[in-house]
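Figure 6 in text form: structure in, sequence out.
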């Protein structure tokens, strides 16, 4: 059974003055357990709206979101969302350890075991030695590592990530892509990733859905079958990698976007 099914989702926002914005036209897709899938689409096409709908934070205008066979009507327990603006989502008054433990406490786990688990997640995201630091004492990349560790502490079956590396410098971004792939391979979580960086989507994913401009719909689905573990230099240098990238660029241009 798919872990997630989106069935004919559309979303129209209604503003106070009576105006409407059609954000999502008609989206249907299925995600199988353990997959790493991405949506790629131009700015403003409705990507955040799509993720917020899947996370049960926004009610769709039409269509259904089904997680593990059950229709979503509020935030499902087995799913977590890492927001686009991660620096606003960490708790400034909690240390790195405190932030990551929050994820475990939310699951009702206050034991010493939870501190150990939080420490091992902190180590997994490469922040060993920073357990007692506060978010404002960390770089942007380190803050995003904390946000990822905290999200994983919930042990979500489905991790939704909204352009999580969008505001990081290029080198930090490559490093975090590899950290994320390593965690995904070790923990077996299903990841639904959103980005407008085409190469990032190709590097990370098993499958990519290409979205049109607003009102968004899926214009193409691509299977990405490069061997894993992938490598920033050799995978990106493959002729097939360039071929897929060029194909996506052409497709986006022919859609008149971004
Ligand atoms: N709460 C809201 N009320 C009204 N309109 C909204 C609301 N949130 C988003 N929109 C509109 O819906 C459209 C899609 O927005 P959304 O944030 O989902 O796009 P996005 O693809 O995530 O953009 P970006 O790549 O810039 O993050 C935009 O035109 C936006 O103005
Ligand atoms: Mg967005």
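Output sequence:
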């Amino acid at each position: 059974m798919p872990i997630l099914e989106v069935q004919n989702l559309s979303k129209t926002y209604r503003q106070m003055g009576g105006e409407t914005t059609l954000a999502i036209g008609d989206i249907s897709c299925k995600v199988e357990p353990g997959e790493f899938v991405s949506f790629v689409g131009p700015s403003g096409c409705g990507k955040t709206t799509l993720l917020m709908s899947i996370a049960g934070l926004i009610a769709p205008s039409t269509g259904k979101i089904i997680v593990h066979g059950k229709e979503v009507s509020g935030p499902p327990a087995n799913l977590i969302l890492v927001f686009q603006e991660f620096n606003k989502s960490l708790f400034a008054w909690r240390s790195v350890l405190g932030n990551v433990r929050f994820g475990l406490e939310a699951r009702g786990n206050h034991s010493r075991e939870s501190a150990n688990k939080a420490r091992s997640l902190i180590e997994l995201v490469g922040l060993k030695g920073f357990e007692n630091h506060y978010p404002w004492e960390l770089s942007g990349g380190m803050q995003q590592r904390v946000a990822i560790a905290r999200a994983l502490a919930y042990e979500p079956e489905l991790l939704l990530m909204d352009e999580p590396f969008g505001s990081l410098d290029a080198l930090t971004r490559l490093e975090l892509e590899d950290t994320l792939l390593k965690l995904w391979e070790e923990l077996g979580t299903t990841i639904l990733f959103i980005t407008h960086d085409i190469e990032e989507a190709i590097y990370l994913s098993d499958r990519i859905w290409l979205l049109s401009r607003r009102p968004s719909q899926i214009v193409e689905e691509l299977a990405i079958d490069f061997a894993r573990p992938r490598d920033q230099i050799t995978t990106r240098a493959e002729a097939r990698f360039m071929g897929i990238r060029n194909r996506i660029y052409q497709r986006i241009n022919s859609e008149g976007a971004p």
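Caption detail: The longest strand covers residues 20-31.
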